[in-house]
Amino acid sequence: MEIPELMTRNFFYLKGDEWFHSFFSNSTYPWELLDGIASFVLVLGTQLPEDRFVQTGKDVWIARTASVADYVTIKGPTIIGEGCQIRPGAYIRGNAYIGEASVVGNSTEIKNSMLLGKVEVPHFNYIGDSILSYGAHMGAGAITSNLRSDRKDIKVRLGGESLDTGRRKFGAMIAEEVEIGCNAVLNPGVMIGAGSLIYPLSLVRRSVPRNSIYKNQGQITGRDLFR
What we know:
By secondary structure, the protein is mainly beta. It has one domain: Hexapeptide repeat proteins (UDP N-Acetylglucosamine Acyltransferase, domain 1). The protein is 9% helix and 34% strand. It is built from three helices and 26 strands. A hairpin with a 2-residue loop joins strand 17 and strand 18. The two termini are 25 Å apart.
């Protein structure tokens, strides 16, 4: 069984010149990328131009134009891109790619995840085993839950269809220009299509198609942003 809308080539809107484009192209579904984030970062880190990036610790590369505040913890392998803001109290646990102009804020924790670019996770967010694409924004307290309470493998559900990922840990896939409201919880394996909006305080248990508005009781209405 296949769900074409959730395949990597259909879910993300990429230009083709991104540093990670070939990495993404080798996957059928986005969650297949999660096991390869660490090796991708390690290989790319050694290829980064020294006039634009500096290696600050073991397997940690930070752009010279990035702003990293005091009282931040960064473990490798991690790349922090140009123009990023890493604010006080941020905890980057490794296996992390923080793309250009992204914001990682106070008390935000990132683990085995990619923020592709211009992503904002600015206040009390948890991002684990997840990929957030360009322009995505997480409101204060919004989190990706990456482990089922019964520890079973995670399934991705969209409408009446489902796929078993075979993964025990998998947070969320969030496409371009998605807005996640404050204190929303994305259950393990949720995928939010491009241009969608999730109301504050929502508990999202199934994937949301692109150009949707997800309301508190799970009602979904449409909007017109991505075609």
